[in-house]
Input
Amino acid sequence: MTHKALESFILTLPDARLDYPFGKDVAVYKVGDKMFALIAEGSKPVRLSLKCDPTLAQTLRERYETVLPGYHLNKKHWNTIICSGQLSEDEIHDLIVHSYHLVAG
Output
């Protein structure tokens, strides 16, 4: 899964937009003024951070070695996913939508 493929999917969500509030190294995706996804620019494999229900976040970390506590984010509410193939594209898309709904309400 590439950065561009993830970005294309993320930007199909209603009112989602791309921003760079932390500089050019981190693509931040927001709905309104709230972040729901971040992608580290140039990371290989892609590192995607998503907001997550705390119980689900912990379950995912226990189940998948490529799901880590959010990098430079609140570890209770954010996961960083190393997109190396352990989670399917559909699973990642579902987690993106989950994050979006947590933020968008």
